[in-house]
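Checked the freezer inventory, then went back to the computational side. Two predictions to log before the end of the day. The first one is the construct we discussed on Monday; recording sequence and tokens without edits.
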Amino acid sequence: MKVLGLGAHPDDLEVFCGGTLALFAARGDEVVMCHASIGNLGTPGGDPAELGDQRTREARRAAERAGAEHATLGWRDGTIRAEDSEQREALEEFIRQCAPDLVITHPEADYHPDHRGLSRLVLDATHRAANPVRKSSYPPLREHIPIIYTESETGLEFEPTEWVDIGPVLEVKRDMVAAHASQLEPLEIEQHRATELFRGMQCGVARAEAFRPCMRWLRVRTRRLLP
């Protein structure tokens, strides 16, 4: 199976589903970790161009640690908008080129406008990518691919229906998150680890990541897709 993780910023996938992506890679699946924006406004007072380059390097190191391929759409931080037709077309082309069997991305109701914008762009672009009539440099997807939504920030407005035990790859996830040295403060790291503990408690393991599948027509599957 080919799994495409689409996060708005360079550290989003690592924090919300890094363990799950590492598990996919460990069992032999092909994993692509793509951040839509370069996160160039992620640190106050820094030079945006330098920061964008640094965060892209950090994301590349994190993907390597997971055994995944790294990619970025190169958009500017804070500019992701669901109604942006150019972004939608660019994402459609990228998805056609990647041809994944599954996409993991942000839930529709998250705190950051970039997260919400990307979530809707993913839904729309994957739909368009399966349309054989649309002109493209790449062939259409063979079907409307399933989408699975990650945890929201601190779990607010997010009710999961599936959990993944990340215990076997916990150290890998720790290294993936640690690669983003420019961003995550100790308090933020503890916050995310508390979420892992809480989700683990819900499903009877030490630490877990939580998810919810997209329940739209043509996206539902009869089998579990997560590891």
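The second is the one RB wanted added to the comparison set:
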Amino acid sequence: MKKILLVEGNLREVNQEFTDNGIKTHTESLRESIDYFTNNLAIDSVNPSSDKDIFEKVKDLDKYDGLIWGGSSLNIYSDTIEIRRQIDFMRECQKKVKNILAICWGLQVAVTAAGGDVKKGNNGAHRGIAHEIIINSDGLKHLLYKDKNQNFNTPAFNYDEVVTLPKNSILLSSNKVNKVMGMSFKTDASNIWGIQYHPEIMYEKMITLINFRKERLLLNESFKNEEDMNVYIQTIKDEIKVSNKDLRMRELRNWLDFI
């Protein structure tokens, strides 16, 4: 049986707040999506920000066939001790884990650990959905996007973007908000696939997160007012009506098949 490690990007107190409000943590959502494709995996999970003894817990990182690093509400340029712990742990993972799927925040941590740069987005943000991601010619040849439509919408929630890729990276997809929506690169030990969106999270959860973060989103002017927010939520509801679950999660399935 293959063994994979799931890495939680949110702080423990954020996850507790999710739980208290009936929202699945990102690791819980990821497990649920993996179960949709297979129950034949041994899965461990860790939180490098909160698990102070993390390197004791996972001494043998090379025992894992793969690792998935999920989302977070953190900003990598905040440079807190919790973020530094994540970057340090990612560097260890890139030395020892053969296959890494880096999702949204996970992509930003992977890029930073490998020498790239992440900054606040210049072209706005994705608030629950990313529209019109275009797979480029390199992406069409990459296994990440096997059987994926070349132009697609997807769940996404991010305010920051990758602005400098690590050496030897390949850009795979982009949209008008973020040039880097899909990419891949290799370290000496790891084959890393990175995406700046969330195929593993349902649109319904994204709507829940918008409502959960309502005050913050209005305060930072992500939406002009509550009416504007509700109109935007309706666009996500409209996408749910036409979205195909298997196509939406194709990147996750392709990675699971690859490892």
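For RB: The first helix runs from residue 12 to 20. Residues 2-258 form a domain with the Rossmann fold fold (CATH 3.40.50.880). Let me know if you want it refolded.
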